[in-house]
Amino acid sequence: MRIDIITIFPEYFAPLELSLIGKARASGLLDIRLHDLRSWTHDRHNTVDDTPFGGGPGMVMKPEPWGAALDDVAGRGPDERPPRLVLPTPSGRPFTQAAADRLAGEPRLVFACGRYEGIDSRVAADAALRMPVEELSVGDYVLNGGESAVLVMVEAVTRLLPGVLGNADSAAQDSFAPGAMHNLVEGPVYTKPRVWRDQEVPPVLLSGDHGAVDRWRRDEALRKTVRTRPDLAERLAAEGDLDRRDRE
Ligand code: ADE
């Protein structure tokens, strides 16, 4: 997969050199390219923002540098499929595990990191004439810019690519994974030692009975979901999943 990230803070993405993503880049599984938006400005101060039409606080990112950057980075050859453009914004659709799965199926993604009060809205409208565009939010809170949201999305998407995780099964058992974990968060996990500060590991995990372990994990996932995510538990009940899973 190829990922292009356009930002005024390329240094923000240093963590993408580390750990599993760093290894996937080194092995050629993942091609991540960073672009400094200011290289598409032409004035002495490399200006990327201006005051909002209609008044109000804050600044808005100017359309011209963004238009030129997207023309260069997301442009395409005559036979090429255009990349999907992702705009992180608190006003976007929720970025969920299902969205991560969908994005992981794309050969090319471009992320455009807004700052200040956001990017002039004509930029997305113009890009949508040439490529699929989606606005995504990582949660109901406001960040200083899209950079940290893009770090979150890139990590959630790239760990789903074949060969990025050490153990191919582990993504399938994550919270929210499609299948058995749909609409569920993971329950508790344990490793050695068997007893630590007077706390014992649940005996079923030492039983060697894989069916019993699977049932215990499913029950604990349900219990935890009811406790921490009543919204998800309600969805499970509405979809009939609670009953179906109990029968399985
Ligand atoms: N930019 C600022 N806040 C954001 C959020 N919650 N999600 C995505 N991008 C953002």
Provide the fold topology:
Layout lengths: L1 E6 L11 H8 L4 E6 L12 E2 L9 E2 L1 H11 L10 E11 L2 H8 L3 E5 L9 H6 L5 E5 L9 H12 L36 E2 L2 E2 L9 H19 L1 H9 L2 H7 L1
Parallel strand pairs: 1-2, 1-6, 5-6, 5-7
Antiparallel strand pairs: 3-4, 8-9
Bound molecules: adenine.
Tell me what the structure shows.
It is a single chain. The chain has 8 helices and 9 strands. It folds into 2 domains: 2-158, SPOUT methyltransferase, trefoil knot domain (Alpha/beta knot); 170-247, Orthogonal Bundle (Trp Operon Repressor, Chain A), CATH 1.10.1270.20. The two termini are 37 Å apart. The protein has a 5-stranded parallel sheet. The model has no long low-confidence stretch (mean pLDDT 94). Helix 3 crosses helix 5 and helix 6 packs across helix 7 (230-238). With 248 residues, it is α/β, with parallel strands linked by helices. Bound molecules: adenine. Residues 88-90, 137-139, 141-143, 146, 149 line the site of adenine.
Radius of gyration: 22 Å
DSSP summary, beta strand count: 9
Question: What is the top-level CATH class of the largest domain?
Answer: Alpha Beta
Globular, elongated, flat, extended or rod-shaped: what is the shape? elongated
Structural class: alpha/beta
Bound molecules: adenine
The total number of structural domains is 2
Strand content: 15-25%
State the helix count: 8
Sequence of strands across the biggest β-sheet: 2-1-6-5-7
CATH third-level topology of the largest domain? Alpha/beta knot
- CATH superfamily of the largest domain, by name, is SPOUT methyltransferase, trefoil knot domain
Low-confidence stretches: none
Rounded average pLDDT: 94
- Between the first and last Cα atoms, what is the distance in angstroms? 37 Å
Helix content range: 25-40%
